[in-house]
Design a protein that fits this description.
The complex is a heterodimer of chains A (301) and B (381). In chain A, helix 2 packs across helix 3 (110-123) and helix 2 packs parallel to helix 4 (139-151). Chain A is 37% helix and 18% strand. Chain A has a domain at 30-58 and 67-77 and 155-272: P-loop containing nucleotide triphosphate hydrolases (Rossmann fold), CATH 3.40.50. Chain A is α/β, with parallel strands linked by helices. Chain B has 15 helices and no strands. Chain B has helices at 2-11, 18-22, 26-35, 42-48, 53-84, 95-140, 143-158, 167-198, 200-213, 218-232, 244-270, 274-282, 287-325, 330-340, 343-374. In chain B, helix 8 crosses helix 14 (330-340), helix 11 packs antiparallel against helix 13 (287-325) and helix 13 (287-325) packs antiparallel against helix 15. With 381 residues, chain B is mainly α. The chains are: A alpha/beta (301), B mainly alpha (381). Chain A binds chain B through residues 54, 56, 73-76, 79-80, 82, 84, 86, 88-90, 99-100, 103-104, 125-126, 128-129, 133-135, 138, 140-141, 170-171, 173-174, 177, 232, and chain B through 1, 4-5, 8-9, 11-15, 273, 275-276, 278-279, 281-285, 289, 293-294, 297-298, 300, 376-378.
Amino acid sequence: MAYLEINDVCKGFGSGTARFEVLKNINLHVKEGEFIAILGYSGVGKSTLMNLIAGLEEPDSGEIIVNDKKIDGPHPDRGLVFQNYSLLPWLSVHGNVAMAVNQIYKGRKRSERKSMIKKAIERVNLDDASYKKPGELSGGMRQRNSVARTLSMNPKLLLLDEPLSALDALTRSVIQDQILEIKKTEGQTVILITNDVDEGLYMADRIMPLSIGPEATLGPEIYNPNPYPRDRRAINSSAEYQKLRHEIISFLLKEKEKEKTNNHNGRVTLPNIKPVDISRHKPTFSRGARPKPKKELSKSI
Amino acid sequence: MSTITETTKGAVPKKKSSKKILRYNPNRVAHTLDKLGLGYFSPIARLIGGDEPKKQLREITSNTFLPMLAFAIFIGVWGICSQFVVSDSTRIPSPAQTWSAWQGMVDFAEAEKLKESEYYQANEERALKMEAKAKTAEEAGELDKVERYNGMAEKFRSKVYQGATTFFDQIGISLITVAVGFLAACILGVPVGILCGISKRVNIALNPIIQLFKPVSPLAWFPIVFVFTTWGIEQPESTSIWQRALWTSAGVVTLCSIWPTLINTAVGVASVDKDHLNVAKVLKLGWFKRIWKIVLPSSLPLIFTGLRLSIGVGWMVLVASDMMAQNQGLGKFVWDMYQNGDTQSTAQIIIAVFFIGAIGFLLDRVMLVCQRLVTFEEQTI
């Protein structure tokens, strides 16, 4: 039985002529404890899919079932780590985590909550900086703070929305390992959204590429059966990884080709505006001397 | 892999030893001074710490010399004006005349203070005499006299000195008036602004009223506020400072200074980062907690920007409203001196102008400090 089921989910934005279908017929079944990476170009609707699973947005049709229950809004069991950290800048590292713990575990004793906060901060190695505000932290530290906040709620499903995309390569690899470490000890189900093929290959059991929208949908699933902990160097050298990577990349490249031919016939339409040289008509306030706007200008506006 | 982990662990700052905190850190002191709006003193703080002394000295000299030069030019132009600008009854007083007028004001205030203390002292002496008489009467067993003497003693003690109001008393009244008006503007403006920011409907409903009344001059508000205060506030004794005129003047200040607070609060609340609201959603915060923990803290910088603008407007409006309401503040002082119409009075008005400017500047600085204290990250104002 799958822990998370996404059945025929569609989602679009806007109405009338401005309607834009983002996701169409998304189907995904995730087993408990599985690590899924969803891979795709930016702007195809990866974050929308994540917001749907988190419950921040509702699907137009279809259903999302977690633990045999159709989801209805956000729930602390589904912990979302935001792409841009979303730390509250007026609170310290400790304060940001405390806010989540105090809200989710309202009923618990004060001392118990305190130790939960402390544990969450220690888990991401931020205990030395716990008094600092997000503005005083580096990007990697901020993201670790954000992860700590989400982990402090003890979610069964961890949703990582491009958590590492804004970090430099070294910091990124460190946090990747920290996330894998946490996953190993606590055994959550994890869905990671990323645009980095290697990150997906290194971290996930299964990689699902997302096609290019509108009406994006999930492509062929690619399994990575290699056991954890994985050797980062092997991704560059081993033939098996090369093959997996080749599969993913060729799907993504095909999508890009399709997009070019389908949507624009290889041509880019520019807005129909003609420039007008207004420098020739210096603004003046004397009667009659004011230039009439040129036809092109009024037309294009 | 292990090397990478180690380097990042090393990058996490170690707990500082207490010695390090106690040491004078010129950069930190300078930064604090900058934050308090006292940027002028930050090179001095750096100089004390021995940080690039030459550069600091150069900065101090230019920071001091250039403003002094400009001020000297200003005094010069003023002096020239005082030679030529003449009307029937008065002329622009020279800087020297203004200075002596200022000394006259100080002397007058001191003399008044002396008179006041003498007055109370004399009354106290009289009261003591009466009490002594009461005592002898009590010993003689004349009870009706005891009562009368004691009553007289009390009367002497309760007498209040009613001398002329000095310039400094009037500054005090002005500050009280603007405080009352500004406080009322905060109490009304912030909650209404929050409502406007939260609810689009409230905003649509109130926007025309706000836009309509925002540009109205204090002079136009005055008669309307006057009707309200005469209707709603009983005139107290003449010795009380809470005169009807003060309430009228404060009301005008409120009506003119409420708008920046209201609008900035509304904008601040309406423009809360969507990500922060998503955090509230994920944590399932209730309505009140969402406002209190997310919306308010994140809009505090803008609210305080509004408050700072409001106090500036309030102080500017105050002089006019004091004039109209005849509230014993700086406006009344200027008006009375204008009615006197001689050069000496004009000199006193110039003094008042300097004081109005200086106090306005100080109020602005106080608000700036408050504003910077609630501003997070590296936001600049």
